[in-house]
């Protein structure tokens, strides 16, 4: 029967994760509800016709009318159950829902078989004598399916480890949440691993002030593209891809048109941002999936293992962009302040770009590691007069410090050559900031600036550079779980990391 075929095909296409063609939507939206109404009318108001038929002399066998009524009730129950599932799960590509619908259909079809057997094909196929309860069965089940398809198609449910608020920021709860509706340019990614950024701690611990909770953080994501929107051209289904800290920009403004989309005034973060159309809060990478516009999804070169690539998508890019935009390269002396996640990648990338690179850390604790990473020199700011021998010799300093505690800006700036640049990417907590006086810049006429993430072009170039030069993030892997997330956040807050945590083993928590 055509109706069943269309139903099954719709179910199949939605279950496979493709958008439903318009003609199907119209079908479910218009025809099915009408047939449901007709069915309901027969089921409730013209049962007597059915009951008469079951007693007709032409019926070769007598089927107790109870049977059909029981079947009808079962179908109705399934209809209610299916609606309930749809509302609770809000997940049309969730196979559980479709299994329920199919089962309801099966029961309805069983009702038909009984009818054919009992009434004989001639009576059965003459429409006027279609039995009311079978009409009702099939209509109810289709109403359930049609509601789901017409209104809830493209609404899925992801699962993630969320924090409820800063008071309990180390308590991660595995919850289901609704992603933004699937757009034509969107990609659903099944997450394989996710790096742990200093920003995650700032966000959930309340250091950056109010956030939208419950929230799953994490924005150094690598996974597999499992569904691509109809207009996507940059990514293929099945490809290994990454997502960083930014997930949207308008792609239309002056900034978006000159590879400054990271500064677009409509930019949205991968987690904790409110999608303007729906009010849905974006959720990060400590989750089963992430849904992202293709512009912010990056193919990962084969040469880079996933856990090496993941931290590059925020930490790496945050370091790489200010380096390349400010002339890091052969013949330049570049300093990196703070040897954490961003800092160590800054060191690796500055080295790969050909500069002379100095690590500037608070103590000597990380000196041996920095030299292993390829640093040409190491300065510890706890040493007396640490800056004096290098005064006015640096061309560029990228500052990744995430706190201003004991931060002597003048001492750092004294390292810069005339008109050389200081670029801060660290985002310390609190609203005090740091005191800057005109005199501070006077002795060398240095420039003082800042940098946010980077562009798509820079991300792709960075990943290619890493692949070509064999750059390896220093990564400590932890299987994702509530306890391990609490542990790595605690350690990161204490600066006890070498040099980036990466959550792994997603299949154990979220399934294959
Ligand atoms: N601009 C952006 O687009 C962007 C993107 C991502 C993250 N961020 C921000 O960048 C900052 C760093 O992130 P991360 O993931 O690299 O953090 P991280 O791994 O914790 O590293 C931060 C490093 O800063 C240094 N540091 C900490 N307190 C300091 C202080 N009082 N004075 C001097 N140095 C200090 C430490 O290095 P030593 O032990 O070597 O001194 C520490 O390892 C965070 O604030 C984060 O929110 C910015
Ligand atoms: C960013 O904007 C500035 C100022 O308009 C422009 O000079 C620069 O070329 C743009 N793009 C990049 C990648 O820096
Ligand atoms: C620098 O000097 C100008 C004019 O003297 C003053 O208006 C400004 O506030 C000063 N800036 C800082 C950062 O102190
Ligand atoms: Zn980050
Ligand atoms: Zn824009």
Q: Please, could you describe this protein's structure?
A:
Homodimer. Its EC number is 1.1.1.2. Residues 341-466 form the Alcohol dehydrogenase-like C-terminal domain. Residues 19-155 form the DUF7704 domain. The chain has 512 residues and is of the alpha/beta class. The chain has three domains: 2-152, no CATH class; 160-313 and 477-510, Alpha-Beta Complex (Quinone Oxidoreductase, Chain A, domain 1); 316-450, NAD(P)-binding Rossmann-like Domain (Rossmann fold, 3-Layer(aba) Sandwich). Helix content is 39%, strand content 18%. It contains 16 helices and 17 strands. The chain has helices at 2-15, 22-45, 47-55, 65-89, 95-119, 121-125, 132-152, 198-204, 306-309, 315-325, 341-352, 367-372, 409-413, 456-469, 482-493, 506-510, and strands at 158-163, 172-177, 186-195, 221-228, 240-243, 246-248, 268-269, 289-293, 298-299, 333-337, 356-361, 377-380, 394-399, 416-424, 447-450, 475-479, 500-504. The strands form four sheets. Strands 3, 4, 5, 8, 9, 16 and 17 form a seven-stranded mixed beta sheet that branches. Helix 11 (341-352) links the parallel strand 10 (333-337) and strand 11. The structure holds NADP nicotinamide-adenine-dinucleotide phosphate, 2-acetamido-2-deoxy-beta-D-glucopyranose (NAG) (2 copies) and zinc ion (ZN) (2 copies). NADP nicotinamide-adenine-dinucleotide phosphate binds at residues 197-199, 202, 245, 314-315, 318, 338-343, 361-362, 366, 400-403, 405-407, 425-427, 451-453, 492, 495, 497.
């Amino acid at each position: 029967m055509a109706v069943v075929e269309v139903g099954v095909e719709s179910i199949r296409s939605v279950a496979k994760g493709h958008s439903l063609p318009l003609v199907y939507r119209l079908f479910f939206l218009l025809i099915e509800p009408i047939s449901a109404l007709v069915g309901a009318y027969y089921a409730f108001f013209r049962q007597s016709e059915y009951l008469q038929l079951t007693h007709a002399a032409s019926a070769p066998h007598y089927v107790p009318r109870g049977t059909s009524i029981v079947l009808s009730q079962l179908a109705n129950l399934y209809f209610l159950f299916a609606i309930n599932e749809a509302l609770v799960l809000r997940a049309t590509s969730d196979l559980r829902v479709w299994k329920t619908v199919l089962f309801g259909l099966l029961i309805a079809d069983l009702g038909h078989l009984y009818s054919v057997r009992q009434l004989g094909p001639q009576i059965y196929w003459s429409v006027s004598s279609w039995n009311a309860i079978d009409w009702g069965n099939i209509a109810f089940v289709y109403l359930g399916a049609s509601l789901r398809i017409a209104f809830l198609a493209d609404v899925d449910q992801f699962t993630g480890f969320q924090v409820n608020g800063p008071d309990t920021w180390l308590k991660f709860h595995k919850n289901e949440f609704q992603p933004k509706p699937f757009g034509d340019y969107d990609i659903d990614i099944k997450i394989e691993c996710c790096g742990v950024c200093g920003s995650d701690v700032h966000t959930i611990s309340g250091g950056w002030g109010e956030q939208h909770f419950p929230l799953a953080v994490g924005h150094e994501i690598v996974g597999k593209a499992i569904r691509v929107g109809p207009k996507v051209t940059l990514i293929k289904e099945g490809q290994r891809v990454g997502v960083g800290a930014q997930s949207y920009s308008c792609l239309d403004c002056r900034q978006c048109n000159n590879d400054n989309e990271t500064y677009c005034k409509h930019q949205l973060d991968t987690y904790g941002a409110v999608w303007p159309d729906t009010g849905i809060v974006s959720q990060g990478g400590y989750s089963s999936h992430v849904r992202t516009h293709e512009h912010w999804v990056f193919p990962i070169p084969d040469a880079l293992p996933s856990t090496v690539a993941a931290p590059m998508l925020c930490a790496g890019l945050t370091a790489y962009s200010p380096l390349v935009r400010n002339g890091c390269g052969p013949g330049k002396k570049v300093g990196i302040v703070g040897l954490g996640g961003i800092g160590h990648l800054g060191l690796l990338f500055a080295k790969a770009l050909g500069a002379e690179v100095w690590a500037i850390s608070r103590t000597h604790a990380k000196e041996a590691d920095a030299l292993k990473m390829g640093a040409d020199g190491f300065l510890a700011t706890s040493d007396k007069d640490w800056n004096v021998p290098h005064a006015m010799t640096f061309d560029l300093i990228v500052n990744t410090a995430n706190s201003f505690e004991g931060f002597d800006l003048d001492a750092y700036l004294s390292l810069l050559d005339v008109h050389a640049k200081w670029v801060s990417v660290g985002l310390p907590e609190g609203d005090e900031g740091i005191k800057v006086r005109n005199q501070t810049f006077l002795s060398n006429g240095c420039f003082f600036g800042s940098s946010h993430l980077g562009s798509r072009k820079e991300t792709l170039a960075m990943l290619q550079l890493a692949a070509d030069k064999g750059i390896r993030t220093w990564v400590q892997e932890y299987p994702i779980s509530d306890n391990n997330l609490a542990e790595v956040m605690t350690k990161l807050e204490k600066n006890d990391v070498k040099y980036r945590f990466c959550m792994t083993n997603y299949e154990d928590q979220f399934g294959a």
